[in-house]
Amino acid sequence: MGLKKRTKVSAEFSMSSLTDIIFLLLIFFMLTSSVVSPTAINLQLPNSSTRAKQTKKVEGPIKLNINKNKEYTLNSRPIKEDKVRKELATIVNNDRRLPEDITIVLSIDESVDAQTLVSNVDIINDFGIKMVLATKLSN
């Protein structure tokens, strides 16, 4: 009696399990990429098309300027970077107004790094005075 084998080896490949794994990986990477936050700060200085209106006050705001060479001027007087806190403390302590009524205008060049901006904003916030970030005038 001649018995023949009925089992044949199939050369077909099932893609269903592979596509399931690919879709699971795709979902995983999409979810994790939305959770990850970038470590760099993309800082853009605001622009304005008009000049601010000057209001009449008894005493004007304090002006802190930082140019592209990181040279500081406080009320048009040059100061060193490490003396900003001390000079602001002197001005705030000698001012007749309450600290929350004092305003400082921070004008910083756009080429200065963000860490300088953040550290100066922290110093200003430590005194509890209002701060205005000056904009560059666009033509």
From TrEMBL:
Question: Main site of residence?
Answer: membrane
Lipid bilayer topology: Single-pass membrane protein; Single-pass type II membrane protein
Q: Where in the cell is it found?
A: Cell membrane
CC annotations in GO: plasma membrane
Q: Name one GO biological process term.
A: protein transport
Alphabetically sorted, this entry's keywords are: Cell membrane, Membrane, Protein transport, Transmembrane, Transmembrane helix, Transport
User: InterPro entries per the record?
Assistant: ExbD (IPR003400)
List the Gene Ontology MF annotations in alphabetical order.
Answer: transmembrane transporter activity
Which stretches are transmembrane?
Answer: 21-41
The family assignment reads:
Belongs to the ExbD/TolR family.
In Swiss-Prot or TrEMBL terms, this protein is called: Biopolymer transport protein
